[in-house]
Amino acid sequence: MSGRNSPGKTMAESVLYSFRRCPYAMRARMALHVSETIFETREVVLRNKPPQMLEASPKGTVPVLVLEDGTVLDESIDIMRWALDRNDPEGWLNGDDIRLLTMIDGPFKYHLDRYKYASRYDDADQQEHRAACMGILQRLEDRLDGQPFLCGPRRTLTDIAIVPFVRQFANTDRDWFDARDLPNLQRWLAGLLETSLFQDIMVKQEQWRASA
């Protein structure tokens, strides 16, 4: 059994606090799913975080994976690598490009936040941050020239860790993104979002509440 099991299953070995639309949580759920890890998903509302999650990880961000022995993993990449170290049927760890992931989680995410949520930041120039994101996406476009995935012929950890953030950028202004000259990246994005893996981890769940 895998992450397809519904909240509240007592057979689950681990508990994942998640938020469906969070890109960090998406990447963690995909790795847990493909590794066939048994886990209970607890869908949280970020404006009303459950105390059980905050007790496990006071920083209050998702995802948070609480293992059966009480060990807490609260960084999405750590969750991915933990799951794949246990079972990696597709060889995702063969494509763990730390440098590329650092670029996405660092500069790209910085500019993405100020493009998507410009009103939350003082003096954020939305167009400037969009252009900065595009500079990074062009590097992905070039890397995908002649190969279907970022690390070669098969999807790997690098693709799965990055695709939720490219999706978020694209959906900020979908018509604008679709009109860009990024055929390789657009093909890559569409292909990964159409997979059963992505569709399975995006199934809507009710907000988790602790049993009385």
Task: Give the arrangement of secondary structure elements.
Layout: E1 14-18, H1 23-34, E2 39-43, H2 51-56, E3 64-66, E4 72-73, H3 76-86, H4 98-116, H5 126-143, H6 157-172, H7 174-178, H8 183-193, H9 196-201
Structure description:
- With 212 residues, the chain is an alpha+beta fold.
- It has two domains: 14-91 and 197-201, 3-Layer(aba) Sandwich (Glutaredoxin), CATH 3.40.30.10; 94-195, Glutathione S-transferase Yfyf (Class Pi), Chain A, domain 2.
- 49% of the residues lie in helices and 7% in strands.
- The chain has nine helices and four strands.
- The chain has helices spanning 23-34, 51-56, 76-86, 98-116, 126-143, 157-172, 174-178, 183-193, 196-201, and strands spanning 14-18, 39-43, 64-66, 72-73.
- A four-stranded mixed sheet has the order 2-1-3-4.
- Strand 3 (64-66) and strand 4 (72-73) form a beta hairpin.
- Helix 1 (23-34) packs parallel to helix 3.
- The longest helix has 19 residues, at 98-116.
- The protein is globular, with a radius of gyration of 17 Å.
Largest sheet: 4 strands, mixed
In DSSP terms (H or I, runs of 4 or more residues), the helix count works out at 9
Q: Could you spell the SSE succession in H and E letters?
A: EHEHEEHHHHHHH
Round the Cα radius of gyration to an integer and report it.
Answer: 17 Å
- Tell me which CATH architecture of the largest domain applies here: Up-down Bundle
Question: For the largest beta sheet, what order do the strands appear in spatially?
Answer: 2-1-3-4
Question: Structurally, how many domains make up the residues?
Answer: 2
CATH class of the largest domain: Mainly Alpha
State mean pLDDT (0 to 100 scale): 94
Please report which band the strand proportion falls in: under 5%, 5-15%, 15-25%, 25-35%, 35-45% or over 45%. 5-15%
The shape is globular
At the third CATH level, what is the topology name of the largest domain?
Answer: Glutathione S-transferase Yfyf (Class Pi), Chain A, domain 2
| Separation, N- and C-terminal Cα atoms | 27 Å
Number of strands: 4
- Derived from helix and strand composition plus strand pairing, the structural class reads alpha+beta
